[in-house]
Amino acid sequence: MTTNIEKRAAGLGVETRAEDDKRTLVGYAAVFERLAMIGGYFQEKIAPGAFATAIKGDIRALVDHDPGRVIGRTKSGTLRLAEDGTGLKVEIDVPNTTDGNDIWELVERGDISGMSFGFRVTKETWDETGEVPVRTIQALELMEVSAVAFPAYEDTTIGVRSLEEWRSANPSEITPVEGEEDPAAAPVSKAAHRARLKMDLELKVRSMR
């Protein structure tokens, strides 16, 4: 189901490379160990090796995460994915189609500004020792990579739900905040943050039904 897919972007941009009549888009869809704030609810980073198994699948390259706008595929060799010291490197051999020609022109003009990816988390950890929870994605299922006009961190609902599920399963791992038992004495910190997460999660889950 599409509601189980999260989308993220590296924000490093995408560039064109033309060689021997082959047009290739090159960029990074993800960067390792870079903390990013997700919707104001939690921070997130991707651990090296998170894509090691994921890139072995049959992955498609899309335009703006639209499954009806395919511009490359690993099975056909027109999409190449690799992990390196920076993150998930993407190379797409752009087709001579309407979408392909449009995306090439838009990247050259600077209108298409980055790469993104759709995924499902298969292994993660949470750290709540700081004021804001930190999610580390250790492994994932890669659904697609996309050239996008607005590279951004999206779809916070699933991450927030994951945090609440982790808290339910690991109550002893949650560090108490001094004065948290007394709402009047509790500082605006983890206690307030948890309350906000809980309320927003309930609203978001209800809206998805």
UniProtKB/TrEMBL annotation:
Residues 15-162 form the Prohead serine protease domain. One of its GO terms (biological process) is proteolysis. Signal peptide: none annotated. It comes from the Bacteria. InterPro entries: Peptidase_S78_dom, Prohead_protease. Keywords: Hydrolase, Protease, Viral release from host cell. It holds the Pfam family Peptidase_S78. One of its GO terms (molecular function) is peptidase activity. Coiled coil: none annotated. It comes from Rhizobium aethiopicum. This is Prohead serine protease domain-containing protein.
